[in-house]
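Reading is simple: each integer encodes one residue's backbone shape. The lines below illustrate:
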Amino acid sequence: MTQLVVEHVSKVFGRKPKEGVRRLQEGADREQLREEGTTAAVVDASFTVEQGEIFVVMGLSGSGKSTLLRMLNGLLEPTSGRVLFDGRDLTALPAKALRDLRSRRISMVFQHFALFPHRSVLENAAYGLEVQGLPRAEREKKAAEALELVGLGGWEKSWPDELSGGMQQRVGLARALATDAELLLMDESFSALDPLIRRDMQDQLIDLQRRLHKTIVFITHDLNEAMRLGDRIAVMRDGRIVQIGTAQDILTEPADDYVASFVQDVDRSRVLTAASIMEEPRALVGPDDAPRAAMRVLRTDHASAAFVVEGGRKLLGTVTEERVERALDEQQRPQSLEQPGAALHKTPNPSADEGDTVRDLMDTDCVTTRADTPLSGLLTPASRTTMPLAVVDGDGRLKGVIPRVALLAALGDHADGDHADGQPTDGHHLGEGAADEDPAGHGREAASA
């Protein structure tokens, strides 16, 4: 369900802002407006945010991202366009209704904590509830629950100056959570923190989101933070949104040279996942298939092994061509002719397809991974199998496979991006023998190219 809709929103400061919007629509750029004494902070921004999504807006200083955020809760009025929250046009709400909406349904977490130094941690966390007019006992109870959520249980009576920067930001987050607001707006909320504390706060937010499923718009200038937190990311430049997509979309298909330059130093092995490189499995057999039927599949797909699946592609194991051949051999029996001294010869056993099935021949020890596993986490499981790595869902259904050549190629692309001098990296050394054929018939085209 779509919770937030931003439609062609622009914000122009200075003389004749409406005229500035008209000039922008006619093709004028920000520099031309600046020369005329007008500043275009946000230009024609449009996007939607789904309920329970973390939507990250990323851009350098001056790109307009913080101005955009302040229009999402009515702190700034757009010069043109509109913002809809649960279908209500914020730009058309009376001032009292807008204040009520901000106090109850939309919360903001600031970069510099914004704690009251003369209030205790509990009183700071309860401030939004106080604005709502809740009785003291009720607001303190809710604030204490929020502090427990962010890991500050037991610190209720402390003062802000007794806390570290990370703990102060947790109080700010607890204050936003205490109101049970549906939409959280986070403006560079972790950028003032030391790197280790910042990483810890990112972990905290991810954990809270798993439990609370809030709708979050998160502002940052840090691409790694954006890719770690965002379900989707909007990249801003000079007031305009130049691309919206998942971290994988932005990394693999940048919209222009600006976005490409942004992502060139990103560690792809920690952003791209198994889902981004997995292929459709080819050689598949059923557990009740006869060896002859399994052999036909193996030969048709030019494979030396197959995955064994049942209804809904539930993965049961693997079976090799060698094991199937052995079963077929065992289903042939020697039959001597009646003439003395006649040579022995083999004739097919009439029950050749009535004995063993693939279930009797398969190996159930199958190495698997999940679709959301980053590439950096695939090397270890891939090293434990000669088969393509099986990608399964939570119910054990086979979603795809990753041939060894595909994994090495993806890691090699990352290494090439990091080593412009062309010197081999560890990823390249792993590719020795990468042209070997995968048992399940994958990667043969790549090997012969």
Q: What stands out?
A: The mean pLDDT is 85.
